[in-house]
Design goal:
elongated; 12 helices; ProC C-terminal domain-like fold; Rossmann fold
């Protein structure tokens, strides 16, 4: 059962991903007590303007992360991966009893969190993607050994304010990142290329963008509304011996399945390099 009201939440490092989660939380109204930190006073002021958010800047308050962490039952770690160990050492003595620490940091393992925070602190590793800002994320969650079912449930409810959630073992987090984590970039690239094809056929910049972008938006909405398998929806658009069939044959002949496998394999190899500090 989804939790409709979340306990106090802190987001330490409200950058691109932390900020996306923050926007999802604010939009949902599920969390009435949110405190966030970032480096600059200007960014802090921007986030404070969201309403219902207490925003602290390290620039003016060097203890902002400690203050925020000590005020929350769910503490999201949104700083750059290289900064995570130092931040964990800073906040560890100030965490509330029973607080759940949630990692947004790619490549930082649950073992790293446990080694600094202690084996008894509940930790959940997450891998959301940027559509969180519009409530359409896919987030992978991997629970640490000390995280109870109730801990995972409350973290799941937090991320469900921003989209869909998949629970999985930590060993699959990097693989998930190559699909849903990096996936928006693949889609944007496809839109860019279809737009360029439209320009090449004489359409204006405005019309080319409208056709390409709205086609992707509409196709995704149709998929969502019908719940049909995408292969079935494709077949419905592809009349036998028609124009779409000819175009799809060219795309399939270009080994799209192999290209996506190769691309995601490359992303996975890089994720493993980053995990090793390379």
């Amino acid at each position: 059962m989804a939790i409709t009201s979340l306990p106090p939440v802190a987001i330490l490092g409200a950058g691109s991903m932390g900020g996306a989660i923050l926007h999802g939380l604010v939009r949902s109204g599920a969390a009435s007590d949110i405190v966030v930190t970032n480096r600059t006073a200007a960014k802090a002021a921007d986030l404070e303007a969201l309403g219902g958010v207490r925003s602290l800047a390290l620039e003016s308050d060097p203890d902002a992360n400690v203050t925020a962490a000590g005020s929350a039952d769910i503490v999201l770690i949104g700083v750059k991966p290289a900064m995570v160990p130092d931040l964990l050492r800073e906040i560890a003595p100030h965490l509330r009893p029973g607080a759940v620490v949630v990692s947004l940091a790619a490549g930082v393992t649950l073992d790293t969190f446990a080694s600094i925070l202690g084996e008894g602190v509940a930790v959940v590793r997450s891998m959301p993607n940027t559509p969180a800002v519009v409530g359409k994320a896919v987030t992978g969650l991997a629970a640490g050994a000390a995280a109870s079912a109730a801990d995972v449930a409350v973290v799941r409810s937090l991320f469900e304010t921003c989209g869909a959630v998949i629970e999985l073992p930590e060993s699959q987090i990097d693989a998930l990142s190559t699909i849903s984590g990096s996936g928006p970039a693949y889609v944007f690239l496809l839109i860019e290329e279809l737009t360029e094809a439209a320009r090449g056929k004489g359409f204006s910049e405005v019309d080319a963008r409208l056709m390409a972008e709205q086609t992707f938006i509409g196709a995704a909405a149709l998929l969502d509304a019908t719940g049909e398998d995408p292969a079935e929806l494709r077949r419905r658009v592809t009349s036998p011996k028609g124009t779409t069939e000819r175009a799809v044959a060219v795309l399939q002949g270009a080994n799209l399945d192999g290209l996506f496998a190769e691309a995601t394999d490359a992303a996975l190899a890089r994720a493993r390099e980053l995990a090793k500090g390379a």
